[in-house]
Amino acid sequence: MWTATNFRISGHGIPTYQLNEAASPEFGGLSSWEIEYDQGHHRRADGSRHDISFIHRHPHFEIFWIRQGQGTLSLDFERLDVRSPSLLIVGPGEVHSWEETCAIEGSAISLSQAFTSRENFYLPFSQLVSFLRPRRDRLVELGAADQDLIASIFSVIRDPAAQSAFDRREVVKALLLILFSAVPGGADCGAPGDPRGWHSAATREFMNALRLECPPLTTVKELASFMRVSRSFLHRSVLRDTGRSPGSHIRDRLVLEAKRLLAHTDDSASQIGLRLGFRSSAYFSSFFRRHAHALPRDFRAAARGAGATKGVRGSSSERAG
Question: Quick one: which of 76, 82, 102, 218 has the most CB atoms within 10 Å?
Fold first, then answer.
């Protein structure tokens, strides 16, 4: 069950929710709860109502099973119209907020980095990452047969008593693998040549390091050192699997993070540049203008003019979502 102690806020600027694994160690990096979203609020089991319309992110995966209702999810400068019945995954570091919610009911699961780590093999990253497809295609609408199966899977995951004779983490892993295989388009996750996944372990680890490290690692050398591989090996693997160099992926990640911080914080361009590893504000402004096709101040003005910063400044430990 979700409780206020399952999450804590950390970091500066954009509110970041961390799973508090110490609050429920038996879950082993897994947290699950029922959701009732209506008119921008989440109604919890104790009857209290909490704002879900503010911008935030988290370093773990969240899987939403929307049984009823509809709403809009703002996700990194795009808006997704969410309708039931559907499945939705929000990835690590993605900045999001719920808007215009109307009687949304369902279930949600959070999976920590520990749960999905390569060392533990609790859940292959390739299958999760493959669902972090372009945001306009992220929402998976489900047929009747899929609904029944997914409803059963979420029910068992939320009921530890149903798994008492087994290692809960292994049971959850098996159930999630069934879930991803059942979802339309999910059966071939990570197969060679599949544009939604990568068959190279090095490429998978590289792409996830880009997602999980915040502020991001900013050079191929840093990423290769973090992964304990050579730069040449990393370059070959990523280029073969994605058709693009590691450096181009890093640039995309830096531009996205810069856009997030410009739109959703009051930090100056100079502060943001330093946070992202740039030696000077002039260098950061030049980089941003070259790759985002706008000066930092102009992008900030346009983003805020479009309402991108709703509920950004200020945070509360009571909030979560």
Answer: 82
